[in-house]
Amino acid sequence: MTELTALTLAEARDGLVAGDFSARELTQSYVTAMETATELNAYIVDTPEQAFSMADAADARLKDGTAKAMTGIPLAIKDLFCTRDVHSCSASHILNGFQPQYESTVTQNLWDDGAVMLGKVNMDEFAMGSSNETSYYGPVRNPWKASGSEKELVPGGSSGGSSAAVAAEIAVAATGTDTGGSIRQPAAFTGTVGLKPTYGRCSRWGIIAFASSLDQAGPITRTVRDAAIMLESMASFDPKDTTSVDCPVPNYEAALTGDIRGLKVGIPKEYHADGVPEDIEKIWKQGIEWLKDAGAEVVDISLPHTKYALPTYYIVAPAEASSNLARYDGVKYGLRVTGESLDDMYALTRAEGFGDEVKRRILIGTYVLSAGYYDAYYLKAQKVRSLIARDFANAYEKVDVILTPTAPSAAFALGEKSSDPLEMYLNDIFTVPASLAGLPGISVPAGLSQDGLPLGLQLIGRAFDEETVLKVGGVLESAAQFSAKPAKWWGAK
Protein backbone atom coordinates (compact mmCIF):
# COMPACT_ATOMS: atom_id res chain seq x y z
CA MET A 1 0.00 0.00 0.00
CA THR A 2 1.16 3.56 -0.74
CA GLU A 3 2.57 5.35 2.30
CA LEU A 4 -0.42 7.13 3.83
CA THR A 5 1.32 10.51 4.04
CA ALA A 6 1.89 10.41 0.26
CA LEU A 7 -1.85 10.39 -0.51
CA THR A 8 -3.57 13.47 -1.82
CA LEU A 9 -6.65 14.73 0.00
CA ALA A 10 -8.92 13.18 -2.63
CA GLU A 11 -7.09 9.85 -2.39
CA ALA A 12 -7.22 9.91 1.41
CA ARG A 13 -10.94 10.69 1.31
CA ASP A 14 -11.63 7.81 -1.07
CA GLY A 15 -9.45 5.42 0.94
CA LEU A 16 -11.26 6.30 4.17
CA VAL A 17 -14.67 5.77 2.56
CA ALA A 18 -13.55 2.44 1.07
CA GLY A 19 -12.26 1.29 4.46
CA ASP A 20 -8.67 0.83 3.24
CA PHE A 21 -7.49 2.49 6.45
CA SER A 22 -9.04 4.33 9.37
CA ALA A 23 -8.91 8.03 10.24
CA ARG A 24 -6.89 7.10 13.34
CA GLU A 25 -4.34 5.22 11.22
CA LEU A 26 -4.08 8.13 8.81
CA THR A 27 -3.68 10.59 11.68
CA GLN A 28 -1.05 8.40 13.34
CA SER A 29 1.00 8.38 10.13
CA TYR A 30 1.05 12.18 10.16
CA VAL A 31 1.83 12.49 13.86
CA THR A 32 4.81 10.19 13.30
CA ALA A 33 5.91 12.15 10.22
CA MET A 34 5.72 15.44 12.15
CA GLU A 35 8.11 14.06 14.76
CA THR A 36 10.75 13.41 12.08
CA ALA A 37 10.55 16.88 10.51
CA THR A 38 10.87 19.23 13.47
CA GLU A 39 13.87 21.01 11.95
CA LEU A 40 11.59 22.56 9.34
CA ASN A 41 9.99 24.53 12.21
CA ALA A 42 6.67 24.34 10.39
CA TYR A 43 4.56 23.69 13.49
CA ILE A 44 4.36 26.02 16.48
CA VAL A 45 2.05 23.73 18.45
CA ASP A 46 1.28 20.03 17.94
CA THR A 47 -2.11 18.77 19.12
CA PRO A 48 -1.84 14.96 18.88
CA GLU A 49 -4.34 14.16 21.65
CA GLN A 50 -6.96 16.38 20.06
CA ALA A 51 -6.12 14.94 16.64
CA PHE A 52 -6.71 11.36 17.79
CA SER A 53 -9.97 12.32 19.47
CA MET A 54 -11.16 13.99 16.27
CA ALA A 55 -9.98 11.00 14.23
CA ASP A 56 -11.99 8.61 16.39
CA ALA A 57 -15.07 10.79 15.90
CA ALA A 58 -14.39 10.74 12.16
CA ASP A 59 -14.19 6.95 12.18
CA ALA A 60 -17.58 6.83 13.88
CA ARG A 61 -19.04 9.03 11.14
CA LEU A 62 -17.45 6.88 8.45
CA LYS A 63 -18.99 3.82 10.07
CA ASP A 64 -22.51 5.23 10.40
CA GLY A 65 -22.58 6.75 6.91
CA THR A 66 -22.63 10.44 7.91
CA ALA A 67 -19.13 11.25 6.63
CA LYS A 68 -18.49 14.28 4.43
CA ALA A 69 -15.65 15.07 2.02
CA MET A 70 -13.30 16.32 4.76
CA THR A 71 -14.10 13.64 7.35
CA GLY A 72 -10.91 12.15 8.78
CA ILE A 73 -8.56 14.46 6.83
CA PRO A 74 -5.61 15.65 9.00
CA LEU A 75 -4.99 19.38 8.53
CA ALA A 76 -2.45 21.99 9.60
CA ILE A 77 -4.03 25.26 10.76
CA LYS A 78 -2.29 28.60 10.29
CA ASP A 79 -1.67 30.21 13.68
CA LEU A 80 -3.92 33.23 13.07
CA PHE A 81 -7.08 31.09 12.94
CA CYS A 82 -8.54 31.15 16.44
CA THR A 83 -9.02 27.60 17.68
CA ARG A 84 -10.85 27.04 20.96
CA ASP A 85 -8.51 26.40 23.92
CA VAL A 86 -5.50 26.06 21.57
CA HIS A 87 -2.61 28.49 21.05
CA SER A 88 -3.64 31.20 18.55
CA CYS A 89 -1.01 33.93 18.59
CA SER A 90 -0.45 34.92 14.95
CA ALA A 91 3.23 34.03 15.59
CA SER A 92 3.60 37.16 17.73
CA HIS A 93 5.06 37.55 21.22
CA ILE A 94 2.46 40.19 22.07
CA LEU A 95 -0.26 37.49 22.07
CA ASN A 96 1.87 35.20 24.20
CA GLY A 97 -0.24 32.50 25.85
CA PHE A 98 -3.52 33.50 24.18
CA GLN A 99 -5.95 30.57 23.95
CA PRO A 100 -9.33 31.79 22.63
CA GLN A 101 -12.59 30.50 24.03
CA TYR A 102 -14.17 30.50 20.58
CA GLU A 103 -13.55 28.97 17.14
CA SER A 104 -13.08 30.78 13.85
CA THR A 105 -15.89 30.21 11.38
CA VAL A 106 -13.59 28.64 8.79
CA THR A 107 -12.10 26.08 11.18
CA GLN A 108 -15.54 25.37 12.68
CA ASN A 109 -16.79 24.60 9.16
CA LEU A 110 -13.92 22.14 8.71
CA TRP A 111 -14.53 20.47 12.09
CA ASP A 112 -18.26 20.26 11.32
CA ASP A 113 -17.29 18.31 8.20
CA GLY A 114 -15.15 15.94 10.28
CA ALA A 115 -11.62 17.22 9.58
CA VAL A 116 -8.79 16.56 12.06
CA MET A 117 -6.43 19.22 13.50
CA LEU A 118 -2.78 18.17 13.69
CA GLY A 119 -1.63 21.49 15.15
CA LYS A 120 -1.00 25.19 14.52
CA VAL A 121 1.60 26.11 11.93
CA ASN A 122 4.15 28.88 11.84
CA MET A 123 3.75 32.09 9.83
CA ASP A 124 5.11 35.60 9.47
CA GLU A 125 4.12 37.65 12.51
CA PHE A 126 0.57 38.95 12.02
CA ALA A 127 0.89 37.71 8.41
CA MET A 128 3.36 40.51 7.61
CA GLY A 129 6.07 39.07 5.40
CA SER A 130 6.90 37.17 2.23
CA SER A 131 9.42 34.67 3.60
CA ASN A 132 8.22 33.43 7.01
CA GLU A 133 11.25 35.02 8.68
CA THR A 134 9.37 37.53 10.87
CA SER A 135 7.81 34.93 13.19
CA TYR A 136 8.55 35.23 16.92
CA TYR A 137 9.03 31.44 16.81
CA GLY A 138 11.80 31.59 14.23
CA PRO A 139 11.84 31.07 10.47
CA VAL A 140 10.28 28.11 8.70
CA ARG A 141 12.62 26.19 6.41
CA ASN A 142 11.53 25.16 2.95
CA PRO A 143 11.81 21.37 2.50
CA TRP A 144 13.23 22.06 -0.97
CA LYS A 145 16.89 22.83 -1.64
CA ALA A 146 18.50 24.01 -4.85
CA SER A 147 20.41 21.43 -6.88
CA GLY A 148 23.92 20.98 -5.54
CA SER A 149 23.39 23.41 -2.67
CA GLU A 150 22.94 23.00 1.06
CA LYS A 151 21.58 26.52 1.59
CA GLU A 152 18.38 26.65 3.58
CA LEU A 153 15.59 28.34 1.64
CA VAL A 154 12.49 30.27 2.69
CA PRO A 155 9.08 28.66 2.08
CA GLY A 156 7.46 32.00 1.18
CA GLY A 157 5.08 33.92 3.39
CA SER A 158 3.11 34.64 5.26
CA SER A 159 1.62 31.12 5.06
CA GLY A 160 5.08 29.52 5.03
CA GLY A 161 4.32 26.99 7.75
CA SER A 162 1.23 25.90 5.85
CA SER A 163 3.03 25.47 2.53
CA ALA A 164 6.06 23.74 4.09
CA ALA A 165 3.83 21.30 5.99
CA VAL A 166 1.97 20.29 2.84
CA ALA A 167 5.14 20.04 0.72
CA ALA A 168 6.93 17.97 3.38
CA GLU A 169 3.93 15.64 3.73
CA ILE A 170 3.40 16.42 7.41
CA ALA A 171 -0.19 17.52 6.69
CA VAL A 172 -2.61 16.46 3.96
CA ALA A 173 -3.51 20.12 3.45
CA ALA A 174 -3.48 23.38 5.38
CA THR A 175 -5.43 26.55 5.88
CA GLY A 176 -3.79 29.80 4.85
CA THR A 177 -4.69 33.44 4.52
CA ASP A 178 -3.88 35.75 1.63
CA THR A 179 -3.64 39.52 2.04
CA GLY A 180 -1.30 40.38 -0.83
CA GLY A 181 -0.21 36.93 -1.99
CA SER A 182 0.38 35.01 1.22
CA ILE A 183 -1.24 31.79 -0.04
CA ARG A 184 -0.18 31.92 -3.69
CA GLN A 185 3.49 32.93 -3.30
CA PRO A 186 4.39 30.26 -0.68
CA ALA A 187 2.58 27.67 -2.78
CA ALA A 188 4.77 28.63 -5.75
CA PHE A 189 7.92 28.37 -3.59
CA THR A 190 7.08 24.86 -2.34
CA GLY A 191 5.51 23.14 -5.34
CA THR A 192 2.03 23.12 -3.84
CA VAL A 193 -1.36 24.51 -4.92
CA GLY A 194 -2.54 27.71 -3.24
CA LEU A 195 -6.03 29.13 -3.75
CA LYS A 196 -7.10 32.62 -2.69
CA PRO A 197 -10.89 32.83 -2.99
CA THR A 198 -12.85 35.96 -3.79
CA TYR A 199 -12.88 38.46 -0.92
CA GLY A 200 -16.02 37.63 1.08
CA ARG A 201 -16.23 33.97 0.04
CA CYS A 202 -14.76 32.68 3.33
CA SER A 203 -15.63 34.28 6.66
CA ARG A 204 -12.98 36.39 8.38
CA TRP A 205 -14.64 35.95 11.79
CA GLY A 206 -12.17 34.51 14.28
CA ILE A 207 -9.15 35.19 12.06
CA ILE A 208 -6.64 37.55 13.69
CA ALA A 209 -6.73 40.59 11.42
CA PHE A 210 -3.91 42.18 9.44
CA ALA A 211 -5.67 44.29 6.75
CA SER A 212 -9.42 43.88 6.97
CA SER A 213 -10.29 44.86 3.39
CA LEU A 214 -7.76 42.40 1.96
CA ASP A 215 -7.47 39.35 4.27
CA GLN A 216 -9.03 36.19 2.84
CA ALA A 217 -8.77 32.57 3.98
CA GLY A 218 -8.06 29.76 1.54
CA PRO A 219 -6.50 26.29 1.21
CA ILE A 220 -2.96 25.14 0.45
CA THR A 221 -3.05 21.62 -0.96
CA ARG A 222 -1.16 19.16 -3.16
CA THR A 223 -3.53 19.25 -6.13
CA VAL A 224 -6.18 21.46 -7.70
CA ARG A 225 -8.82 18.83 -6.91
CA ASP A 226 -7.80 18.92 -3.25
CA ALA A 227 -8.16 22.73 -3.25
CA ALA A 228 -11.65 22.43 -4.71
CA ILE A 229 -12.73 19.91 -2.07
CA MET A 230 -11.31 21.91 0.82
CA LEU A 231 -12.64 25.30 -0.34
CA GLU A 232 -16.18 23.94 -0.45
CA SER A 233 -15.85 23.02 3.22
CA MET A 234 -14.20 26.30 4.26
CA ALA A 235 -16.56 28.67 2.45
CA SER A 236 -19.88 29.86 3.84
CA PHE A 237 -21.98 32.93 4.44
CA ASP A 238 -21.44 34.19 7.97
CA PRO A 239 -23.68 36.85 9.55
CA LYS A 240 -20.95 37.45 12.16
CA ASP A 241 -18.72 38.86 9.39
CA THR A 242 -20.08 42.02 7.78
CA THR A 243 -17.87 41.46 4.70
CA SER A 244 -19.14 37.90 4.16
CA VAL A 245 -21.16 37.62 0.94
CA ASP A 246 -24.43 35.70 0.96
CA CYS A 247 -24.19 33.56 -2.15
CA PRO A 248 -24.38 29.79 -2.71
CA VAL A 249 -21.21 27.71 -2.36
CA PRO A 250 -20.90 25.56 -5.50
CA ASN A 251 -19.65 22.00 -5.79
CA TYR A 252 -16.17 23.08 -6.84
CA GLU A 253 -14.95 19.56 -7.52
CA ALA A 254 -17.66 19.15 -10.15
CA ALA A 255 -16.17 22.11 -12.04
CA LEU A 256 -13.02 20.10 -12.83
CA THR A 257 -14.31 18.85 -16.19
CA GLY A 258 -10.98 19.22 -18.02
CA ASP A 259 -12.77 20.97 -20.89
CA ILE A 260 -11.70 24.57 -21.50
CA ARG A 261 -12.35 24.68 -25.24
CA GLY A 262 -13.45 28.15 -26.28
CA LEU A 263 -12.44 29.81 -23.00
CA LYS A 264 -10.53 33.05 -23.43
CA VAL A 265 -7.33 33.43 -21.43
CA GLY A 266 -5.91 36.92 -20.96
CA ILE A 267 -2.16 37.60 -20.99
CA PRO A 268 -1.43 41.02 -19.45
CA LYS A 269 1.52 42.79 -21.04
CA GLU A 270 2.29 44.64 -17.79
CA TYR A 271 3.37 41.40 -16.08
CA HIS A 272 6.49 41.25 -18.26
CA ALA A 273 8.37 43.00 -15.46
CA ASP A 274 11.96 44.18 -15.68
CA GLY A 275 14.49 41.86 -14.11
CA VAL A 276 12.25 38.78 -14.07
CA PRO A 277 14.44 35.68 -14.53
CA GLU A 278 14.35 33.82 -17.83
CA ASP A 279 13.01 30.75 -15.99
CA ILE A 280 9.84 32.64 -15.07
CA GLU A 281 9.22 33.96 -18.59
CA LYS A 282 9.88 30.51 -20.04
CA ILE A 283 7.40 28.72 -17.79
CA TRP A 284 4.81 31.45 -18.49
CA LYS A 285 5.19 30.92 -22.26
CA GLN A 286 4.91 27.19 -21.69
CA GLY A 287 1.69 27.69 -19.73
CA ILE A 288 0.24 29.70 -22.59
CA GLU A 289 1.04 26.88 -25.01
CA TRP A 290 -0.51 24.27 -22.70
CA LEU A 291 -3.78 26.19 -22.56
CA LYS A 292 -3.76 26.75 -26.32
CA ASP A 293 -3.29 23.02 -26.85
CA ALA A 294 -6.30 22.38 -24.60
CA GLY A 295 -8.50 24.53 -26.85
CA ALA A 296 -8.41 27.86 -25.05
CA GLU A 297 -8.09 31.12 -26.96
CA VAL A 298 -5.24 33.34 -25.79
CA VAL A 299 -5.92 37.08 -25.82
CA ASP A 300 -3.41 39.86 -25.16
CA ILE A 301 -4.79 42.33 -22.63
CA SER A 302 -3.66 45.41 -20.73
CA LEU A 303 -4.01 46.17 -17.03
CA PRO A 304 -2.55 49.69 -17.19
CA HIS A 305 -2.60 50.53 -13.49
CA THR A 306 -0.65 47.40 -12.49
CA LYS A 307 2.51 49.47 -11.94
CA TYR A 308 0.76 51.30 -9.10
CA ALA A 309 -0.48 48.15 -7.35
CA LEU A 310 2.52 47.55 -5.07
CA PRO A 311 2.79 51.13 -3.71
CA THR A 312 -0.99 51.23 -3.32
CA TYR A 313 -0.95 47.98 -1.34
CA TYR A 314 1.84 49.19 0.92
CA ILE A 315 -0.23 52.22 1.84
CA VAL A 316 -3.61 50.52 2.30
CA ALA A 317 -2.40 47.38 4.13
CA PRO A 318 -0.19 49.15 6.73
CA ALA A 319 -2.93 51.73 7.36
CA GLU A 320 -5.41 48.97 8.19
CA ALA A 321 -2.76 47.12 10.20
CA SER A 322 -2.11 50.25 12.26
CA SER A 323 -5.80 50.39 13.13
CA ASN A 324 -6.21 46.66 13.77
CA LEU A 325 -3.11 46.27 15.93
CA ALA A 326 -3.94 49.23 18.18
CA ARG A 327 -5.95 46.79 20.34
CA TYR A 328 -2.79 45.03 21.54
CA ASP A 329 -1.71 47.09 24.53
CA GLY A 330 -1.10 44.67 27.42
CA VAL A 331 -4.44 45.38 29.11
CA LYS A 332 -6.82 42.52 28.27
CA TYR A 333 -4.79 39.57 27.00
CA GLY A 334 -1.36 38.42 25.90
CA LEU A 335 1.93 39.98 26.91
CA ARG A 336 2.06 42.69 29.60
CA VAL A 337 5.23 44.60 30.47
CA THR A 338 4.57 46.96 33.38
CA GLY A 339 6.12 50.37 33.95
CA GLU A 340 5.62 53.39 36.16
CA SER A 341 2.45 54.49 34.36
CA LEU A 342 -0.23 53.26 31.98
CA ASP A 343 1.56 54.94 29.08
CA ASP A 344 4.76 53.14 30.08
CA MET A 345 2.92 49.82 30.00
CA TYR A 346 1.59 50.51 26.51
CA ALA A 347 5.01 51.52 25.20
CA LEU A 348 6.98 48.74 26.88
CA THR A 349 4.49 46.01 25.95
CA ARG A 350 4.41 47.03 22.30
CA ALA A 351 8.18 47.52 22.12
CA GLU A 352 8.80 44.00 23.41
CA GLY A 353 5.75 42.33 21.90
CA PHE A 354 5.95 43.42 18.27
CA GLY A 355 8.76 42.41 15.90
CA ASP A 356 10.63 44.83 13.64
CA GLU A 357 8.53 44.25 10.51
CA VAL A 358 5.26 44.73 12.38
CA LYS A 359 6.58 47.93 13.98
CA ARG A 360 7.66 49.16 10.54
CA ARG A 361 4.21 48.64 9.06
CA ILE A 362 2.44 50.17 12.06
CA LEU A 363 4.62 53.27 11.71
CA ILE A 364 3.95 53.52 7.97
CA GLY A 365 0.23 53.01 8.50
CA THR A 366 -0.03 55.53 11.31
CA TYR A 367 1.85 58.07 9.20
CA VAL A 368 -0.40 57.76 6.13
CA LEU A 369 -3.51 58.05 8.33
CA SER A 370 -2.25 61.08 10.24
CA ALA A 371 -3.62 64.60 9.89
CA GLY A 372 -2.22 66.28 6.81
CA TYR A 373 -1.26 63.04 5.09
CA TYR A 374 -4.55 61.12 4.92
CA ASP A 375 -5.68 62.80 1.67
CA ALA A 376 -2.23 62.73 0.09
CA TYR A 377 -1.59 59.04 0.73
CA TYR A 378 -4.45 56.89 2.01
CA LEU A 379 -7.32 58.53 0.12
CA LYS A 380 -5.31 58.64 -3.10
CA ALA A 381 -4.34 54.97 -2.67
CA GLN A 382 -8.00 54.03 -2.37
CA LYS A 383 -8.75 55.88 -5.61
CA VAL A 384 -5.94 54.04 -7.40
CA ARG A 385 -7.25 50.78 -5.96
CA SER A 386 -10.58 51.49 -7.66
CA LEU A 387 -8.76 52.04 -10.97
CA ILE A 388 -6.95 48.71 -10.58
CA ALA A 389 -10.28 46.96 -9.98
CA ARG A 390 -11.71 48.72 -13.04
CA ASP A 391 -8.81 47.43 -15.17
CA PHE A 392 -9.76 43.87 -14.25
CA ALA A 393 -13.47 44.54 -14.90
CA ASN A 394 -12.63 45.84 -18.38
CA ALA A 395 -10.42 42.83 -19.05
CA TYR A 396 -13.17 40.39 -18.11
CA GLU A 397 -15.36 41.86 -20.83
CA LYS A 398 -12.92 40.18 -23.23
CA VAL A 399 -11.57 37.15 -21.35
CA ASP A 400 -12.69 34.50 -18.85
CA VAL A 401 -9.49 34.13 -16.85
CA ILE A 402 -6.02 35.69 -16.70
CA LEU A 403 -2.70 33.79 -16.69
CA THR A 404 0.46 35.24 -15.10
CA PRO A 405 3.52 34.06 -13.18
CA THR A 406 2.90 33.70 -9.43
CA ALA A 407 6.19 35.10 -8.15
CA PRO A 408 9.15 36.92 -9.73
CA SER A 409 11.63 34.23 -8.60
CA ALA A 410 11.96 30.78 -7.13
CA ALA A 411 12.54 30.36 -3.38
CA PHE A 412 15.53 32.32 -2.09
CA ALA A 413 17.91 31.69 0.79
CA LEU A 414 17.10 32.45 4.41
CA GLY A 415 18.43 35.91 5.25
CA GLU A 416 19.02 36.85 1.61
CA LYS A 417 16.41 39.62 1.49
CA SER A 418 15.42 40.17 5.12
CA SER A 419 17.72 43.19 5.48
CA ASP A 420 16.11 44.98 2.53
CA PRO A 421 12.36 45.52 3.05
CA LEU A 422 11.81 47.01 -0.41
CA GLU A 423 13.36 44.00 -2.14
CA MET A 424 11.24 41.72 0.03
CA TYR A 425 8.06 43.63 -0.85
CA LEU A 426 8.75 43.08 -4.57
CA ASN A 427 7.94 39.38 -4.06
CA ASP A 428 4.28 40.39 -4.11
CA ILE A 429 4.44 42.17 -7.48
CA PHE A 430 2.35 39.57 -9.37
CA THR A 431 -0.11 38.71 -6.57
CA VAL A 432 -1.03 42.10 -5.10
CA PRO A 433 -3.21 43.39 -8.00
CA ALA A 434 -5.77 40.57 -7.64
CA SER A 435 -5.85 41.12 -3.88
CA LEU A 436 -6.58 44.83 -4.25
CA ALA A 437 -9.43 43.96 -6.63
CA GLY A 438 -10.74 41.19 -4.32
CA LEU A 439 -10.54 38.57 -7.08
CA PRO A 440 -9.92 34.80 -6.83
CA GLY A 441 -6.50 33.49 -7.78
CA ILE A 442 -4.73 30.16 -7.75
CA SER A 443 -1.06 29.17 -8.00
CA VAL A 444 -0.37 25.86 -9.72
CA PRO A 445 3.11 24.25 -9.77
CA ALA A 446 4.22 24.26 -13.39
CA GLY A 447 7.88 23.26 -13.47
CA LEU A 448 11.34 23.64 -11.99
CA SER A 449 13.89 26.41 -12.24
CA GLN A 450 17.43 25.86 -13.53
CA ASP A 451 18.34 25.22 -9.89
CA GLY A 452 15.69 22.53 -9.53
CA LEU A 453 13.25 24.63 -7.47
CA PRO A 454 9.45 24.83 -8.00
CA LEU A 455 7.91 27.57 -10.13
CA GLY A 456 4.20 28.42 -10.11
CA LEU A 457 1.75 29.90 -12.59
CA GLN A 458 -1.15 32.05 -11.40
CA LEU A 459 -4.71 32.15 -12.72
CA ILE A 460 -6.95 35.10 -11.78
CA GLY A 461 -10.71 34.94 -12.30
CA ARG A 462 -13.86 37.01 -12.03
CA ALA A 463 -15.30 37.66 -8.59
CA PHE A 464 -17.02 34.54 -7.21
CA ASP A 465 -16.02 32.52 -10.26
CA GLU A 466 -13.67 30.14 -8.50
CA GLU A 467 -15.16 27.37 -10.63
CA THR A 468 -13.53 28.68 -13.82
CA VAL A 469 -10.25 29.32 -12.01
CA LEU A 470 -10.24 25.75 -10.72
CA LYS A 471 -11.27 24.29 -14.08
CA VAL A 472 -8.44 26.03 -15.93
CA GLY A 473 -6.08 25.28 -13.04
CA GLY A 474 -6.88 21.59 -13.37
CA VAL A 475 -6.04 21.65 -17.08
CA LEU A 476 -2.78 23.49 -16.38
CA GLU A 477 -1.92 20.92 -13.71
CA SER A 478 -2.63 18.00 -16.04
CA ALA A 479 -0.44 19.51 -18.77
CA ALA A 480 2.44 20.34 -16.40
CA GLN A 481 2.50 16.85 -14.85
CA PHE A 482 4.45 18.28 -11.91
CA SER A 483 5.51 15.29 -9.82
CA ALA A 484 8.79 16.47 -8.29
CA LYS A 485 9.15 16.29 -4.52
CA PRO A 486 11.73 17.75 -2.17
CA ALA A 487 14.51 15.45 -1.03
CA LYS A 488 14.18 14.19 2.53
CA TRP A 489 14.73 17.09 4.85
CA TRP A 490 16.91 17.55 7.91
CA GLY A 491 16.23 15.07 10.65
CA ALA A 492 14.03 12.84 8.48
CA LYS A 493 14.83 9.15 8.28
Description:
- It is a single chain.
- This protein is an alpha/beta fold and 493 residues long.
- The chain is built from 15 helices and 11 strands.
- It has an 11-stranded mixed β-sheet, with helices on both faces.
- Helix 7 (224-234) runs antiparallel to helix 15.
- It is globular, with a radius of gyration of 21 Å.
- The two termini are 19 Å apart.
Distance between the termini: 19 Å
Low-confidence stretches: none
Radius of gyration: 21 Å
SSE arrangement, N to C: HHEHEHEHEHEEHEHEHHHHEHHEEH
Helix content: 25-40%
Labels describing this entry:
single chain; 493 residues; alpha/beta; eleven-stranded mixed β-sheet; 11 strands; 37% helix
Q: Can you summarize this structure?
A:
37% of the residues lie in helices and 13% in strands. The chain is built from 15 helices and eleven strands. The longest helix has 22 residues.
List the helices and strands and how they pair.
Blueprint: H1 9-18, H2 23-35, E1 43-46, H3 48-64, E2 74-78, H4 105-112, E3 116-121, H5 160-167, E4 173-178, H6 184-190, E5 193-196, E6 216-221, H7 224-234, E7 264-268, H8 278-293, E8 297-301, H9 309-324, H10 342-353, H11 356-369, H12 374-395, E9 401-405, H13 421-425, H14 432-437, E10 441-448, E11 454-461, H15 466-480
Parallel strand pairs: 2-3, 2-4, 7-8, 7-9
Antiparallel strand pairs: 1-3, 4-6, 5-6, 5-10, 9-11, 10-11
